[in-house]
Amino acid sequence: METWLIRGARVTDPSQKRENEPLDVLIRDGVVADLGPSLSADAREIRADGLDLLPGLVDIHVHLRDPGQTHKEDILSGCRAAAAGGVTSVACMPNTSPVCDTPAVVGEILEKAKRADARVYPVAAITSSLKGEHMTDFAALKAAGAVAVSDDGRPVPTGSMMKRALEEAAAAGLPVLSHSEDLSIAAGGIMHEGAVSRALGVPGIHPAAEEAATAREIALAAATGCPVHICHVSTKGSVALIRDARRRGVRVTGETAPHYIALTDAQLLSRDADYRMNPPLRSEEDVAAVLQALEDGTLTVVATDHAPHAPAEKADFVSAPNGAVGLETSLSVCYTKLVETGRLTLSELIARMAWNPARLLHLAGGTLQKGAPADLVLFDPAARWTVDPEGLHGKSRNTPFKGMTLTGRVKLTMLGGRVVFDEGVAPWTS
């Protein structure tokens, strides 16, 4: 395995309270061996002048579509996309075919992931086949390698089952990731309910669909003392519920996604299904609330909800499945909307995209501490680029950021000391 010495970069690592520090970083045997000024070692040198050196991102909400839907994405293609976006760890959701609800499927995913360009952590289903009828065996799933449980894609239908899931998952040491949606309120809507849905003449999804379910999960967490994580928070009301609960000491955390801070439902006036996701893009008021929640720490995690679909599946605005790809653009979108605007420092952003999610799921990544896996990113904060769907590294092209000009771009990604993405930074000759 190569020994690397990265020189000239500005190191930012919230786990060590480092921000913009000019340090050399030595990588040996796949781990961070040393950090300091003017290091010397027998190693291949990477000159990183003008670049930020960051921990690899940890994305805890990704759909890799493998097994069973590999025409959209597979583990290897999804991890290539992750590497291009500076993401070195992904937690993959269980709505595959078959559903990831048995140790055998967990094992299949982990076996395929051995050749991938990112670390893959399976999230197992709460209920068998995501049907909401019978609980899975949490202890067996954890023993097989699952890092959390979720029925993402569908909510757990009853409060009694969710209460039991929280209690049994806590006993097994597995975080619960909640898809918080009241389907009876969502009732077939395809976008945010508001002026745009009325103008288009299509059924909308009222924010109450998310907020009612979020309130249920918070109440159950308060009643049991067990933690719950709310996925893809998109509304002002959900933010208020989570903020209040955290102030009361309820063990609730929340995440949002880059599209909920960068886009609104106005995008759907184009009738382009690439802007359709669940939860849907919301109003400007909701976006402002989510941005404030990231600033004040109400929401502690940014994850992509990377959801690939084939072009033919996204062709019809009304019948298309929900979801958008996001692994390759997440850091640049968040840097543009949060750091460039002064809402967050770079360290605060990386805490939400690497260190906090790693701690939430008890993963080894998200840090550049000595002895940690050498999962890292070189990022050019001055780069300006326009998102071209045809230039993406995954199988699907359904990005809602197409045509958007962003600031900051990943130049190199390293996984366990192995370069998995490079735009001409690493020295490939001795």
Structure overview:
The longest helix has 17 residues, at 208-224. The protein has two domains: 4-53 and 374-422, Urease, subunit C, domain 1 (Roll), CATH 2.30.40; 56-360, TIM Barrel. The chain has helices at residues 75-84, 103-113, 138-144, 159-172, 183-186, 195-200, 208-224, 236-247, 259-262, 284-296, 330-339, 346-360; strands at residues 4-7, 10-13, 18-22, 24-28, 31-36, 44-47, 52-55, 57-62, 87-92, 119-124, 148-149, 177-178, 191-192, 204-205, 228-230, 252-256, 301-302, 376-386, 405-415, 418-422. It contains twelve helices and 20 strands. It is 29% helix and 22% strand. It starts with a strand and ends in an 8-residue tail after the last strand. The radius of gyration is 21 Å and the shape is globular. It is α/β, with parallel strands linked by helices and 430 residues long.
